[in-house]
Amino acid sequence: PDSIYCPHFWELKWCNYCPYSCSYCYLQGTYRGKSKKELLSTFRDRQELGAILNSFFHEPVWNGKSWGDIIYENMGIQVFNTGELSDSLCMEHSKDPFSMFIIKIFQDQPYHKVLFLTKSDNVNNLLKTEEFDKAIISFSVNAIDVAKRWEIGAPDPIKRLEAASKVQTHGYETRIRYDPIFPINNWKEQYSNIIDETYKRLSPDRITLGTPRGLKNTIRFSKDKSWTSYFTVDTEWGRKLDPSLRYEIYTFMYDKIREYDDKVPIGVCKEEKSLWKQLKGYSFSRKCNCVA
To answer: Is it the case that residue 202 has pLDDT exceeding 90?
Structure first.
């Protein structure tokens, strides 16, 4: 919607599946309440997916150039998000891990990058990979009490941070998303602690902040709606917290992060342009999680 700031980005639709059951997850609306068993049938055939991507990156379509070449010349490096409709690492336990398959395809072209967005701590295959400069790993992390209450089945946030530390040490570009940030009791202490825990283990290459967003279908298909009690306003991107509270959350998180790192880009996810204007006194980045 025109009132929401969100840079255009590419989705790589390889499946519609997540093994976790986060109460607030917008995929509940995307999946229209389908069970995990039903969603297991949505995985794209690897041979077909590989053929599509190789054609996109390598087959000439105009003046000897592929779509990948043309897009690079006109738009620069693009990031292909594998975690918009799934958890990017949801199949790492299989005999044919998606990460090893997709990283190789992106390594065979010169420009664009693949983004993994995950709550998983299973990064073993990523650590086995030797060539990966076209891959970005982004971990969604929350306050510990929020994770216990609403991120059902997902690894403990500390385990996610330990996994992030491993992939950054291995050499990957590593991003962190604190999203959605809930104003629970003692929220400042809770989120201050998770930032402390982050910087004990790694220095993120980019950070994105987000507050709860309640799209109509998300709320409709959510079994546990307790997370919706914080909403007070309607926007063109669903129900949200009061703007003054969102402003307080973003500026608090910004100031806390800057205690550790005065250069890391800090973005905001799917926020109203009117609130962006209020944040103009802070150096928030327009480059957030899903773009180069």
So the answer is: yes
